[in-house]
Amino acid sequence: MLQNELFNNVLRDFDAGYWELYNDPERELWSQKFYTSLGYKDQELAPSIDFFFEKLLHQEDVETFRDNFLNYRRNAINFKQHVKIMTKEGDYKLFRCATNDELPVNIKSEINLVFFFEIKLEPEQDIAKDNFYYKETAQMTATGSWYVDFLKKKSFWDFETKRILEYPDDYIPSLKDSASYYAEDCRQQAADLFFNCTMAGTPFNTEIKMVTANKRVFWVRAIGKPVYNENKDIIGIRGVFQDIDEVKKKELRLQRSIDIIASQNSRLFNFAHIVSHNLRSHTSNLSLLVQLIEGIESPEEKINLIKEIKQISHSLNITIEHLNEIVAIHSNKDQKKKTIKFQDSLHLVTNSIGQMITTSKTQILSDFDELLQIEYIPAYLESILLNLITNAIKYKHQERDPVITIKTYIANNKKYLTFSDNGRGIDMKLFKDKIFGMYKTFHYNEDAVGIGLFLTKNQVESLNGKITVESEVDKGTTFIIEF
């Protein structure tokens, strides 16, 4: 027996019997209190789990207890349940069975323990009360129970599962339709979990998206564990799932807000760095030239230095204009949005750079059938299209004319625009983290400034959107904008 003062005090307070479980089943011990609660002396019964299943445990409780017990031994999955155990006189007593971590106090033990607390109420009365509480708890917590029977090749749902999934009470779930109960992008996840549970006995506890009978997609927490027979073979999977859609969506919105804040902080740091570095560079050069001019008497040399001042002044002006554009984006993000047709915005942009498109022999293909229009700031959408189109033309492949494909679509209730070209492409291994940086260029064009994509990203993200890029050298680039 365990010699532990805290442990013994707890048992004395609980007045409970218990089992001590070891790696070797032959070493399992049943406490004196467990024997006396059933009317036996410890010499009268051997601590055998097989004997317990066959002779002592009520047959109604064997299947559930076996599953819980084997999962506790093999996978350290704690459990608690009510069981009816036969006494020496042949009557059944009701016990509340619980493992270490299911106790109201923390018992630190290196040995796995199973406790049996005798319930003094009549079993029938207590079971009826438990059924009432189970139904109330299931409804209040939106928790449904399910069972997959491999032998009968059937699935079973309780009343709350059918309610959550919006199926009628007489609906019979089918294993053939099991994939349809999950969102399309989560079906592989569900298949992997069930396969591992079935083949390796690996329990699962995960968050996954399901689909109701009315095609509503929502988040659930799904918990499952294998069901064993008397030969310790897996014959099914039993579990529960809880509707956590509202909580999960809040969590995702919070995470999205955190990501946006992190992105904004990164841009703010970048902006501050550029202001500090670029403006300081210009002003330092101006200050140096002024000092030189003051120390030079030759008019010709002064004129040459003044020309340099003009060039620095021009560069300073361009830098300030770029910084003003960035400030304007975040100042104007609260402008009133309008319903804009993508085709109209594209028409305005292509008209404004018609000569550039014609000279470069650029072909623009558009498909806006799935998403014709959007609520957006018109100037932003035009600026985004303008930057992407002019970039595609500037960085066209030397061996082919530019072909640009612009398409809109809807997926998972989100609106997207894709912009693809057949240009030089970008080496994603080298420049993946720098593509949207300010003054970052990836080709050697003399007119490359590195401001267009930076502005585009700021415009998209200022309205809580997201822009990503896929590219391959010598094949082309695709930008994906999620509005």
From TrEMBL:
Its EC number is 2.7.13.3. Keywords: Kinase, Phosphoprotein, Transferase. Residues 204-256 form the PAC domain. It catalyses: ATP + protein L-histidine = ADP + protein N-phospho-L-histidine. GO terms for molecular function: protein histidine kinase activity. It is an enzyme of class 2 (transferase). It holds the Pfam family PAS_3. InterPro entries: HATPase_C_sf (IPR036890), HATPase_dom (IPR003594), His_kinase_dom (IPR005467), PAC (IPR001610), PAS (IPR000014), PAS-assoc_C (IPR000700), PAS-like_dom_sf (IPR035965), PAS_fold_3 (IPR013655). PROSITE patterns: HIS_KIN (PS50109), PAC (PS50113). Residues 274-483 form the Histidine kinase domain. This is histidine kinase. It comes from Aquimarina algicola.
